[in-house]
Amino acid sequence: MKKYIYLLMTLMILNSCSKDDVQISGNPVIELRSDLSSAMFGDSLQFTVSVNDEVPLSTFKAKLYFGEELVSETVIRTKNNGDYTGKIYIPFYKNIPDETATLEFILQNVNLTITKKTYDVQLMRPDYPYLILVTRNGMYPMEKTGNYQYAATEVFPSTDLPSYIKTPVISDWGNEITFGWGEDGITQSSTADIPFVSSITGKFSVTFNTLTYEASPFFEILINSQKMAMIDKQNFRIDLDLTQGENITVTGIDNIADWWIDVDFFTKINDNEFTFVPITGKYRIIANTSLKYFKVEAMLGDKPAQLQPDGTGAIWIIGDGIGKPSITSNHVGWTTEKAICMSPIGNKKYQVTFVADETVNATSINFKFFYQNNWKDAEGIVDGGEYTNATLTTSSNIVFVGDGATLDYEGNGRDSGNLGLLQPLEVGATYVFVVDVSAGIDAAVLTVTKQP
């Protein structure tokens, strides 16, 4: 009899647990109450859903995918059954044509039970009737001149026209889209000034394409017929594979005869043509129109090169008393962004040329050589390499290598590896510094030669 009672109680408990499990898991239900078949890039797409469950709900999520990439998400708290309205932003990017996106709805209850539904949304690129050019002096209409193409043609107050561009709102769900300057040129959702510059005065056109983000007018510099990318109004950049001894042609700079040319990297043939000095490899050339010089850096892939264990790569200079194109206009100091890349001249030798009282201080220097153009290595994880008096030696009668001790303790008054002068340099004279690591990067030899 007792066994029968125990068995009956066990069955009742199991039956009760089974019912509780059904109640605990729940069954979230989603019903769409609005039309989401189409929308435009840049819209805040509004939707209404009806949600319900037999247990309390928790959250409703809307996720938008371009292909497999999640580009936008909205979360709504859903404590009660009923209708909920929300919006999800459809990003506006360049070079994306009309396409079908995927909108995913996810409903979750308090016990983590989830229901998902997906919908196809046909996205279209907005066809704006006009755009607006916003300058520091006022706003100008940009008329439509073709598919996605717009232009403002005016007698602008200056050939220098920093400005951004904005769109009108053309739908119930639409938003104003702005186009301004970013790290890689013109980008959406920015109001930073685009550095428009015209080569002519008076009446000219500012153009923009809302699909490709191509725009004009800009100051353009070409090297070997390849256009340099604009970093900002004063700086242009290009990465090139260059061969030692090849001729390089520069166009687009009217006053290039006034530019300072770095002899460690270029031998001048005429105002627009130069011979490349360093060994064959990949290099980044930065044209600075304000300082009027070309900064050249050795590259490894898409990053500035650093000294490799086998002695290849690059050696960088950071410290006081030096600067290109001059110490007065661009003193390096201990600012890593201004680090000077030595020219790799071959046979694991690296060269930099200074002119006393122009690119190097004639009476005092305090700089040193680094494996990289920063305090850390290329991965930014550990401290990078730098030369000390244990890894760099010289027999020069012009400079010395710091031993890390102060003068009070009979040292030479420089931190380990930092260079100092044994005697003042001759003002106007040229000095060539060469670091030779052919015997190993831990056995570098520095020579300093005064050119006749």
Descriptive key words:
452 residues; 1 helix; nine-stranded antiparallel sheet; Immunoglobulin-like; five-stranded mixed sheet; elongated
What does this structure look like?
This protein is mainly β and 452 residues long. The protein folds into 4 domains: 96 residues, Immunoglobulin-like (Sandwich); 87 residues, Immunoglobulin-like (Sandwich); 85 residues, no CATH class; 140 residues, Immunoglobulin-like, CATH 2.60.40.3620. The protein is built from 1 helix and 38 strands. The strands form 8 sheets. Strands 9, 10, 11, 12, 13, 14, 15, 16 and 17 form a 9-stranded antiparallel sheet that branches. Strands 2-8-7-4-5 form a 5-stranded mixed sheet, with no helix packed on it. It has a 5-stranded antiparallel sheet with strand order 19-18-22-24-23, with no helix packed on it. The radius of gyration is 33 Å and the shape is elongated. The termini are far apart. The N terminus is likely disordered.
